[in-house]
Specification:
The protein is mostly beta strands and 327 residues long. Helices cover 1% and strands 55% of the residues. The chain has one helix at residues 6-9, and strands at residues 16-18, 47-54, 64-74, 79-90, 93-109, 112-128, 138-140, 145-147, 157-173, 176-183, 189-194, 197-202, 206-213, 215-217, 221-231, 236-246, 250-257, 266-274, 279-288, 299-307.
């Protein structure tokens, strides 16, 4: 139904609502800095990544997400720095964030490295009351009447801003990548003060656990399995993926999101290639397995990475830094 977004009607039932998890990304293994600030600089040079994702195509109000990030090593600081910009639109809400990060590298031995990172910035959430409908409200599309009859739902466009902090650790060796990150560490409220009353939305803390490995089959094929577990403690979601790269340039793979009847969400098909020695382009299509497959045509995501592939700044690199070759 036009302009009705069921998930947001919950705002009329509670003084404080809990915000959704962070945006979903199918190509997470190609954008590790996007899910963990401790990865900053581990691409060995200045690295830019852009992501555009349209989820659940043809479902009105479905998520539309964009992310742009850049990070680079700072050998003089024995770590990396980065910036992450994200815009996520879901129904009547828009979440926009800007984060700066720093991570410190600790060489474990000659073949492995531990990175500890933190990011901080600002999060702005917009809530458009004109796109909401409450069961007891009064609405007239002809005259523009928009009365929710509920002082916890704004009738117009409202915005709220709050600081946000995330942190993470990342271990990298020749055959293993392992990362853990915590998002929205402050777990603070975004407060909308509007003429009808007040609406509070809690930015709930949640966690990402990432693991990946790689091995060769002959001299032309490399296989890279990975997994991502996301959790807010009360709910969990897992994703298992495998990418196969041929001749160093072309790659493809698949993922399964979900691990039981409740969490099973999609099968993801992945394809990509290195356009040149600095640029990698990847695409994914999510084939929806949940009940949403009756009202949507799956999800599309495009990721592009540009790596300068040359040393940045001064200082001495740590004894070992492994650059994932499929990037």
């Amino acid at each position: 139904m036009k302009k009705i977004f069921t998930v947001l009607i919950l705002l009329s039932c509670f003084n404080t609502a809990i915000a959704q998890q962070s945006p979903q990304y199918s190509l997470y293994m190609l954008n590790k800095y996007g899910i963990n600030p401790a990865y900053g600089g581990l691409d060995n040079s200045l690295s830019f990544t852009g992501v555009v994702r349209k989820q659940w195509v043809n479902l009105e109000g479905s998520p539309f997400t964009q992310q742009l990030n850049a990070h680079m090593p700072m050998y003089l600081l024995r770590g990396g720095i980065g910036i992450n910009l994200e815009n996520d639109i879901l129904g009547a809400t828009r979440n926009t964030s800007a984060m700066l990060s720093y991570n410190y590298w600790i060489p474990v031995n000659k073949t492995s490295l531990l990175s500890v990172g933190i990011s901080a910035g600002v999060l702005q959430r917009s809530l458009d009351g004109t796109k909401l409908r409450a069961p007891g409200g009064q609405y007239d599309e002809t005259t523009g009447l928009n009365n929710h009859n509920d002082n916890r739902i704004p009738v117009g466009l409202e915005t709220a801003t709050a600081p946000t902090v995330s942190g993470g650790v990342y271990f990298q060796s020749r055959r293993l990548d392992l990362g853990f990150s915590a998002i929205n560490l402050l777990e603070n409220d975004l407060t909308f003060n509007h003429s009808e009353g007040q609406t509070d939305i809690l930015q709930k803390r949640h966690f990402n656990l990432f693991v990946a490995t790689n091995f060769e089959i002959g001299s032309m094929i490399e296989v890279m399995p990975s997994a991502l577990l996301k959790s807010d403690i009360s709910q969990n979601q897992a994703e298992l993926s495998t990418i196969v790269r041929y001749n160093g340039n072309v790659f493809g793979g698949a993922s399964l999101r979900g691990y039981d009847k409740v969490t099973l969400d999609a099968v993801v098909f992945i394809a990509g290639m290195k356009i040149n020695d600095k640029t990698t382009l990847a695409y994914s299509y999510d084939m929806t397995l949940s009940d949403l497959n009756t009202v949507s045509d799956g999800s599309h995501e495009i990721t592009i990475n540009y790596n300068l592939n040359k040393p940045i700044g001064g200082g001495v690199p740590p004894p070992i830094i492994y650059n994932p070759r499929f990037l």
